[in-house]
Amino acid sequence: MTKHGVNSEVGRLGTVMLHRPGPELKRLTPRNNDKLLFDGIPWVSRAQDEHDAFAQALRDRGVEVLYLTELLTETLQSEQARELAIAGAMSSLHLGDTLRDYLTVALHDQSPEELAAFLTAGVRNDEVRGGFGLVTSLLTHDDFLIDPLPNLLFTRDSSVWIQDRVAVTSLTMPARARETQLTELIYTQHPRFAGTPTIHGWQHENVEGGDVLLLAPGVIAVGVGERTTPAGAERLARQVFAADLAHTVLAVPIAQERATMHLDTVCTMVDVDKIVMYPNVADKLQAYAVTVTERNGDSDRDLVLQVAEAEPFLVAAAKAMSIDTLHQIDTGLDPVTAEREQWDDGNNTLALAPRVAVAYERNVETNARLEEAGIEVVAISGSELGSGRGGPRCMSCPVSRELL
Ligand SMILES: NC(=O)NCCC[C@H](N)C(=O)O
């Protein structure tokens, strides 16, 4: 088994999982893009070019790039994995038994490549050649029987590595819920990951990876807002404490709105003691430090947690990280530029190593500030990729980083 693991946001990146945008993006229309969490209709081939350049920038710096579709296809070579994948997709209550029985057999007849394509790009009512009955008749021709997953692009959210464990998350928005069926399948069935211990899981309270920041070894910040719920933050805290993966979890309330859907849309680490942060919220950002006071057994439910009074985020973080100051680098130049660049994922950087970070080139002012602060910016273009509202960090799931 290959050794994987991550204990910070900035340790030298070894292996990352990406998803090259594919046919699932071609499912987006002006009628469904809001529901599918895209702000526009991306030009797919240009999005692919931009994504290829992103992947190449990572490889050029020695990062191993794994693609979700390739891992999924390899996973689906196994009969057991196929059974699980098909059962998961067929569990939707939209189908009805006639259609479900037909589709179950039809999907079993597909090659691993074809099955992976149906699981990611979905299946429309008018693409099915059998199983006709009440449900087929009552649905419209372009209703999806298996929903497409255009947000697979944002591999950050559907799993997160914490030390040597992988947490399959529990996604809040219905349009994304099925993504974790695929990440769970990969991590539990793909030979590369065989035996990897997992925590959390899609059946637990909502936690999304974009809300989970490994500020330093043993210190995890968890954003609580539109996606991760208070109960999700508590469950994740319990699980990481039970497995001895952290000593402090900082629960960080963020506004429940699209612009700040995850904590990593507001701030990301670019060095062991530097964070790029949206200044319009920085003063208000608070954190509740959570620690363990008693262990009455082995399960996460047997822990007694202590929750400190809320403190300014930067103060609470520096304390938990045992450093004097967590230095803030501001997004933008003035409040309006900051608002524009935050919206365009200026805060959403992916650190390749301490003081080296991938960022969208369009966020000119934020990138200039990063450079001034001694951060090397690896600039990528994201005109089409950004239409789903996610930047380099959202589009990447680090699987291994040099441990700090
Ligand atoms: N970590 C992130 O902020 N991920 C971006 C997710 C964007 C996606 N369209 C969503 O709304 O979930």
Describe, in plain words, how this protein is organized in 3D.
By secondary structure, the protein is an alpha/beta fold. It has twelve helices and 20 strands. The chain folds into two domains: 13-68 and 150-401, L-arginine/glycine Amidinotransferase, Chain A, CATH 3.75.10.10; 93-146, no CATH class. It has helices at 44-60, 68-75, 79-90, 97-108, 112-121, 134-138, 179-189, 230-242, 279-282, 313-321, 335-343, 364-372; strands at residues 13-18, 64-67, 123-124, 144-146, 159-162, 165-168, 198-200, 212-216, 219-224, 248-253, 267-271, 274-277, 286-295, 303-307, 311-312, 327-330, 350-353, 356-360, 376-380, 397-401. Bound molecules: citrulline. Citrulline is lined by residues 37, 151, 154, 156-157, 176, 210, 261-262, 264-265, 388-390, 394.
Question: Any key phrases for this structure?
Answer:
single chain, 404 residues, alpha/beta, L-arginine/glycine Amidinotransferase, Chain A, 2 domains, six-stranded mixed sheet, three-stranded mixed sheet, 12 helices, 20 strands, 29% helix, globular, binds citrulline
